[in-house]
Amino acid sequence: MAQESSINRASRRTRILNNHLVQSPSDPTSCVQSNSCLSYTPPEVTESFDFETKEMRKILDFHNLEDRDWLFRVIEQGKVFNGKERGGRMFVIPDYNQTMEQQREMTMKRIEYLLERGVFDGWLMKEGVEAELKKLAFLDVIQNFDHSLAVMLGVHFFLWGGAIQFMGTKRHHDKWLRDTETFALKGCFSMTELGHGSNVRGIETVTTYDLKAGEFVINTPCESAQKYWIGGAANHATHTVVFSQLNIDGVNQGVHAFIAQIRDEDGNISPNIRIADCGHKIGLNGVDNGRIWFDNLRIPRENLLNSVADVSPDGQYLSAIKDPDQRFAAFLSPLTSGRITIATSAVFSSKVGLATAIRYSLSRRVFSATPNGPEVLLLDYPSHQRRLLPLLAKSYALTFAGNYLKMIYVNRTPGSAKTLHVVSSAFKAIFTWHNMRTLQECREACGGQGFKTENKIGHMKGEFDVQSTFEGDNTVLMQQVCKALLSEYVAAKKKNKPFKGLGLEHMNGPVPVIPSNLTSSILRSSQFQVMYCQVCNHTFSQYISKASPILCIR
Ligand SMILES: Cc1cc2nc3c(=O)[nH]c(=O)nc-3n(C[C@H](O)[C@H](O)[C@H](O)COP(=O)(O)OP(=O)(O)OC[C@H]3O[C@@H](n4cnc5c(N)ncnc54)[C@H](O)[C@@H]3O)c2cc1C
Q1: What is annotated as the active site (predicted)?
Q2: Which CATH number fits domain 187-323: 3.30.1360.40, 2.40.110.10, 3.40.50.2300, 1.10.443.10?
Q3: Between residues 505 and 213, which one has the greater pLDDT?
């Protein structure tokens, strides 16, 4: 962007506006001085930077940079990733003109290609912070190329694999984890039903225990109980974790999770299982979402994922967690890792959109300030800056927040479970909403070019839109976050203790005093903005302390 004083900028803007209002009587074609030919040089070739871009990349990507670069090269080299060389650079983008069936097959071919190159080694069999960070870095890279592929991997490793890891015990780990890592089996995650999505407790699938046979019997009692939207179920998955009400001797013990086989290794649907396709979607067509009915399917007693509750061979229901609410919260734990990868992938998508739109605005010229003068660079228009640069600033901020979230996740302890749940829910909603807003602005900021498939922004809108719905609807998640924060507030006030955790600590200090002389530089300063937030929070806290008896916050 051209460097110029604010006075020069103001007078140049005045000239431009004046030019719009007072039309020159001369030949209208002469007011545009067109370039003799179109040429484009990427800004990084001609512009110098005021900062070290490599250092900035280190701060943004934060971990496993060499691993990320290795995977970038692996993907670039793979024919299945549809790379195209342009001007000595490789661009990789899925072919969205393929049919839904072809896109689904490409997802499986890409998984096979990455599997052969050892990309998934250790994703389930290795434990510890290093292994977890490497997995998260690889997923960051993969989602940059193909969101369908990242979602299929998320379902297989984080939802199915995560359910076995966190909700199962040794017998499940020994039996399923290695085969999951090598794709000897393909897993999916059957929680949502046609009749119940956000309200998981309301699901209607019922499982009973047959004492004589020592088996569970899973049944879909009505059409609204069919499992719906299950990623991987329509064509590929061989196994699923099924969420169901558990009924023991006529007593409903609430939602539990079981493992069921739904296809054999040749892809034939198992007896007592019916499957249908969810059909074409507005994005994510490389994922085969399906519907499943269980017709009194029998599974061994050992297939109950029993980390928090079990049924003994003689049919006794056993659980160390007596409180049904806490038991239910424990069942939902595999969703945490999914929310983290969704949140971080949403910021990457915003950055791809912004990179395209900002580059465009650094090369595109529109309208001249004077008759016969050169046209003005798009990014020199303040209105264009205001459209893109705050979104860019927020994307930087969310990147750092995402890295913080990853750190809480990989260093989690039983004591940090609540913080992790609340922060991951809030970040998932905020990041994915930010992404959709950013992509729409970037699409429009590129004018007609933004509408071209090749420029990726329009397709990313379709691909990433669903992030506000799956693994916790954003609105519902934000309601949970509000409830958790209000409860935390009331509890801390009741005990007369300072706030700790959940990001409320800034309210421990006194109410700041707003200066009387509010100049524009004070208003723009970050100190003032933090102070202003604190004043708002204190006003809000006064409201809560008065309203909490009416709000019934527990
Ligand atoms: C492409 C795709 C892939 C998916 N993959 C899977 C999968 O692999 N496995 C799986 O189990 N599920 C999957 N899902 C399902 C997904 O998790 C659910 O769609 C999601 O939980 C929302 O449920 P719902 O669709 O029933 O919407 P609903 O819960 O019916 O919500 C509809 C609307 O009502 C609003 N709403 C709901 N409750 C409240 C409330 N209390 N107050 C105010 N407003 C409210 C919501 O904000 C939303 O706008 C997938 C969904 C899609 C679209």
Answers
A1: 471
A2: 2.40.110.10
A3: 213
